[in-house]
Structures are given as C-alpha cells and as structure tokens.
Amino acid sequence: LEKLRSFDEVIFIVDLNAPRGYEVFSLFSNAFKDNIPSNYISSIDGDNHRAGYLPLMVDGLFSSSGYVVRNTELVSGLSDHKAVKATITFPKN
To answer: Model-level pTM greater than 0.85?
Structure first.
C-alpha cells in the first residue's frame, strides 16, 4: 500500500487471495475505490478452479480518484479466476 500511495494517480488489478469484506481486502478498498460492482460475489471461475465454485470475491480493480471506471464486468472461461473487463478513462483537468 505504501508504494501504491506514492503515485499521484494509480489503477491496478490484484488477486488478493483474501475475500472482500475481510481485513486485507478492506485495506485496499479503504485506500482506493473498489471498481468491481458489489453484485459480484465471486471472482473464482467454478468451471476452471480445482475447488469448483467458491463464493469469494478475491480479485479487485482498484483506482485512485482521477480514474473513471465504467462497465466493469467479470468474464468466465479464461482461467481459474474470472477476467476483469472495464472501460477506463483518465479525464484531463
């Protein structure tokens, strides 16, 4: 977090291996905007993960306030975790 906070503006995707709502995920979501809509309850692709479906949102798309993130969705069928797809813009001031 210290390194990420050192940038004026930042956007990143991360596999935290820690669920949304728990301490590690909350450290990131308190410091940056969580751009994955709350209606997504899992980023694990149950068809490809060795454990099957797990109701765990462990991946994040976080940004500082300068970025506008729209149309975020999770896409299955690529890996054991769902891919994050979004439209990202950085408006000029």
So the answer is: yes
